[in-house]
Amino acid sequence: MQRFRHNLIGLIGLVLVAGVTITAILAPLIATHDPISQNSQQLLSPMTDGHLLGTDHLGRDIFSRLVYGARYALLIGLGAVGVSAGIGVTLGTLAGYFGGFTDRVVMRLVDIFLGIPILVLAMAISGILGGGLRNVIIAVGIAGWARFARLTRGETVSIKENEYIEAAINTGTSHVKIIVRHVLPNAVGPIVVYGSLYIASAILWSAALSFLGLGAQPPTPVWGAMIGQGRDYLTIAWWIATFPGLAITVTVLGFNFLGDGVRDSIDPRQR
Known about the structure:
Largest sheet: none
Shape: elongated
CATH topology: MetI-like fold
Order of helices and strands: HHHHHHHHHHHH
Strand content: under 5%
Number of helices: 12
Number of domains: 1
């Protein structure tokens, strides 16, 4: 914590992430309009026409949709990381701890998944599962598990070589207890750091899927879909796509800065 307090980039990231989180929690209090309410009398209204950030092509308030969109961005980011970490950490731990055939099978699967760009893989999975918020989380989560597995496997192999692991094995402690009590607690640091960085990537990839129509379906106020809807009106109503783009940028930078700050704070080489 002392090292993190002196990390300017990490503190900036913490402020940005805290701001997005507070906005998401207090969305009903912050939003000035119903995010899905349409008004045919105020189509493409500018920012000076009773709406803080203007309205879209259906008369919906952009500011309110941005505020509620923060909820979906965090939900998708955290949900995707949960899926990726759940699969990757489990398989990576098993591969690193038991080695042999288990290690070869898991790492060949990792090589296959790492050979496919995450966004392409997420698009394929989302296309199979169909649109919707839950399917986006599953698609982005499955697409990114291999990196968690490779990281966890490396940490597990290093930890397994320690003498206290050998002592636990020699005293008859079960493999499950050794993994839960000794391996995972010592490997959690790098996993948490990478998870915080992956949240930013998950938000960005989910926005890309929504932009392509493979994400949450209308009228859900998702930032990527808002950009996709506003691209046809850039010359006459630039605010429809611009402000969701800025929201994605700020959120992604926040999580990236926070992850970098946490990594630098717990890395012994930085001491």
